[in-house]
Amino acid sequence: MLFKQKIILTAIMAFAILCMTGTVSAANYNVNNTSYTSIFTSTGISSIFNLNGVDYTLKKGDTFTFMDGIYKNVAIILDKQVSILARGNVSLFSDGSSDIIQILSTANGTHVSGFNINGSLKVNGNNAIINNNSIVSSARDGIKISGDNVTVSNNTINGSTLSAVNSAGNNAHIENNYINSSRKDGISSSGSNAAITNNKIYYGLNGINSTGNNVYMENNSIYSSSNDGIISSGNKATIKSSVISFCGKNGINSKGNNANLNATNVTWNNAHGISSSGDNVTIYNSSSKYNKKSGIYSGGYHANLTLNDANYNKEHGIYSKGNNATISQSYTHYNDMNGMYVTGNNNMVNNSYAWLNSYSGVNSTGIGNKFSCIESKYNTLHGIYLSGANNTVSSSTLSYNTLNGIYSTGNNAQISYSYAAGNKNNGIRTSGNNATLYFIYDASSNSQNGIYSTGNNLQMSLVLGANSNKWNGIYLAGNNASVWYVTANNNTKNGIYSTCSNLYLYTVVSAGNNTWNGIHSAGSNAIISDVIASSNLKNGVHSTGSGANLVSITANSNKNNGILSSGSKVNIIYAKTNYNLLNGIYSTGSNALIRNSTSNSNKQNGIMSSSYQTTIYCCNMTKNSINGIYSTGSTVKIIKNKLSSNSNCGINSYGYNALIDSNTIYSNKYGVHSKGSKVFIYGNKIYSNKIHGICSLGSSSTIFSNNAYSNRGSGIYSTGSSAYIYKNTANSNYQNGIYSAGKSASLFYNTASCNKGSGIYSTGAKAQVARNTTKKNKVYGIYAKGKGTRMACNTSTGNKKKNVKR
């Protein structure tokens, strides 16, 4: 009795120790193509099985090694956690009605490795590992997964009727597999948090079709899928370092939000290389070339496209349709349409290159887009084409394009800190209203205009060079333009050409050496101020519009005129027009005002005016080859000017009713030469001229209160009828003080002294000579020989030959 108790106690202790130390460890079994059937039944794994005449009890985690051979009509159902491994060449064939291997949801942690599976494998259990298998000719999915945390690696899967791998479980790892010729997707993944890496996938419907969130895809190589190489519709996907080519649709089709596409190489696809329609997508450091649509298509909001190459595509390099995108450090060359096509709004494109595209380097139709640090060259159309409103271009180089460097048709465009040189049309062309251009470093050597603007309300400033263009340096056709601080030299037409009304052009640093005019303004009410326009082959400034104000113009050494103005009511103020081959200033418009200007050493006239009601005030004309002022218009006012050393006349006036008032005129051939009728010559100081001080040939002229002295002809020489010569002083002239030959002339209150001829010499009939004073003249004091002349109350003393002769 005591002995039995000891045995029972020992047994109890042994059982307790066994419980504390855990279960008996898993076993390893070898099976062949006949013995395996005693273990793997149509309902699962036998809990107790006989192998080689020995009964065994299945334990969790047992390993079954299948020996080399062909296994037919296989339908292995794994309902418990085991490992099944192949040794040698183990080929499994099914009857076609079921999966060859099926891992049930009760068999978590199962491992299947090394088999040649001629059919399909189904994984419902979690934490399974499927690796190093060859799966061919599956009538359904090669591997179908519904369990979580499954790893599928280093498998070769060929010719699946459906997908090679179809995973619906979460946290799947699908890696290092070789997949070929699936009729549906190479890999189809609908679970979240999958990792799909290092797979080679050929000739499927889609290479990878991922619908789950947070999927990570890296280093996959996908070739010749019928649809997309990768299609990803889940959020927060990562597609990285993959090579995708020759797909029937897109290389990558990313539809989910917050995706990250990094370092992909996508080529020769029949649609887009990369197509992204989700929001907040990042496409980084990727190369997309030779695709039949765009290299990169982005349709979602807040996309970030950085450091991408998109070259040689049949449509656009990058096509951005979404709003608020950022495109940076992109290279878009040799595309059959645009380098970058931006149709969304409020996008930012910077530090990017677009060369040799068949359309434009950049084409933007959206609103509020900003382009900075763009280099766009050698494109068949434009460097940048903007058709939307409120777009901005800054710090960009846009050169050698077949049409324009920049062409903006939208309103409120801003272009700054940019170069636009060597383009076949214009450097910069804007047609929208309210454009702003500032700090244009260079708009030179273009085959048309450096800058061409047709929109209204242009604001332009700091154009440092609009030079050597085949047409004009700057061409302004819209109204209300404001232009400040520009340089426009050596252009084949004009430096600046404007047809706009209400132009405000000020501080033209230089508009010189142009083949036509330095500045040509044809619009009304222009203000042109603080300009240097010299050495042009036509005129320095040519203004044809009415109401223009030309202020502080320096226009020297031009082949025609310094300033040519044909509009009415033009003001020319503080001009300096010297050394021009025609006139310093030539005004043909009515009601012009020319004042406070200097016109010296011009080959014709200092100022030439041919229209009526012009006023020339307070100007200085010296050493001009013909006249200081040459005026042919009527009702002209020439007031307070200084005219000296001109080769012909100080003032040469041909118009009627002119007023010549308070001028200082000396050392010319004639001081004043007037041929028009009803001219009023008043208060002038005229001396030391080579012939007459005043030569008046027109009828009914008034010569009043002038001081004409020391002239080598007569002080006053008048031949017109009905002249009124009143209160003049004519002393020390080389001929007569006053000579009057016109009929019915009136000579009153004049003083003529010390002249080498007569003081007053009157030959016209019916003259009236009264209350004049003549002294110390070398011939007569007064000689009045005209028929019917009347004389009264004259004072004539000390004249050498005779005081009065009739």
Automatic annotation (TrEMBL):
Domain Right handed beta helix: 148-286, 627-773
Family annotation (InterPro entries): Beta_helix, PbH1, Pectin_lyas_fold, Pectin_lyase_fold/virulence
Gene3D superfamilies noted in UniProt: Single-stranded right-handed beta-helix, Pectin lyase-like (2.160.20.10)
Record protein name field: Right handed beta helix domain-containing protein
